[in-house]
Write a structure and sequence with these properties.
115 residues; mainly alpha; 5 helices
Length: 115
């Protein structure tokens, strides 16, 4: 059985990455982003953040914080773990915005229903 590196085209930009390792790293980032969407959405609802601008600014700020933490976890060298640098910074940010919105409105409705 061939190693994943031997299946890559020589000279291709992704030739130095194992497909299995990249898939695992991407799954970790997706799990972290999904968890962030749930937790920050609930936090925004509990804090009573209202309005599109304030709510999504909170989501973008928390997403930036997560990206910085993941970048620090890679030792500041995300090119070592991902073929493209933007995979660490923008992977699944927009995809999890709907989960954030769901938990934001749910937590806001549960906590501030009688305000």
């Amino acid at each position: 059985m061939s190693s994943p590196d031997s299946l890559a085209t020589p000279g291709a930009p992704n030739a130095r990455f194992s497909a299995i390792a990249v898939r695992k790293n991407t799954q970790i980032v997706q799990y972290a982003r999904s968890s962030l969407a749930f937790i920050s959405g609930a936090a925004a609802g509990i804090l009573g953040i209202e309005g599109w601008i304030g709510g999504f600014a909170f989501y973008l700020a928390s997403s930036l914080l997560l990206s910085l933490l993941l970048w620090a976890k890679t030792g500041g060298n995300s090119k070592k773990y991902f073929p493209r640098v933007e995979m660490l910074w923008t992977e699944e940010v927009t995809g999890n915005a709907f989960s954030y919105l769901l938990f934001w409105t749910l937590a806001y409705g549960l906590v501030h229903i009688y305000d």
